[in-house]
Amino acid sequence: MFPQDENPIARLAAIVGISIMLAVLGITLFGIFTNSTNTFESPYLRLNYPDGWREMNTDLITDCEDIECILVLQQIAPPNATLMISRLQMLERQTPEQLALRSQELQQGEVIGTFDLTLAGQSAFGLDVLVSGRRCDTIIRQIYAIRDTTAYQILVIVPCQDDFASILGAVQDMLDSLQLFSGQAI
Are 25 and 84 part of one and the same domain? Predict the structure, then answer.
């Protein structure tokens, strides 16, 4: 492979160079094949419906834009129900600094506004509610409750990266306190 009269130092440098290139290539390929997306294996979220408690499976959309992610919580629906996942933009985009300043004026779990909208032909009702996460002191999340004839969905728009397990806990506590699905369904 190497000429007999080649300088031993040059041969050593060539071997080291090739080794470094192979190492870099190996690390790159390892990173590509082991790169896992920020998937979220969550426990089920229990919601209080008029006819009793039901569990909801969760699915996390991980392609975040700027400071917003969407956490989709879908009811375990009958077989004839279809999953509808839609990206909803925050009604009012705010920076983390604006959110922090706003949250200082509010109390945990306070409802700061309501809104109605129509999504894919379905009526929807939403609440702007303040909840806490681990990595954000207090952040505002917009809760959307959507109803059709077969299934319910709740979409939580998270305005910052956070620990999603604590988000689920906070959302569960909020729904319990608001009794969102108790009484008549919206």
Answer: no
pLDDT digits (tens, 9 = 90+) for 103-156: 555 555 555 555 444 444 444 455 555 544 444 433 344 444 444 433 344 455
SS (H, E, C) 68-85: EEEEEEEECCCCCCCCCC
Q: How many domains does the chain have?
A: 2
Which 3 state secondary structure label does DSSP give 168?
helix
Helices (H) and strands (E) in the chain, counts: 3, 7
Amino acid identity of 27? I
Measure the CA–CA gap between 89 and 69, rounded to whole angstroms.
10
Q: Where are the beta strands (DSSP E) in the chain?
A: 45-49, 52-65, 68-75, 111-119, 122-131, 139-147, 152-158
Give per-residue pLDDT as tens, 63-110. Answer: 333 333 333 333 333 332 222 222 233 334 445 455 455 555 555 555
What residues does 58 pair with on adjacent strands? 73
Q: Flag whether 136 is in a domain.
A: yes
Domain of 21, in residue numbers = 1-35
CA atoms within 13 A on the CB side of 179: 5
108: closest CA among 87, 131, 133? 131
For the chain, give the number of residues.
Answer: 186
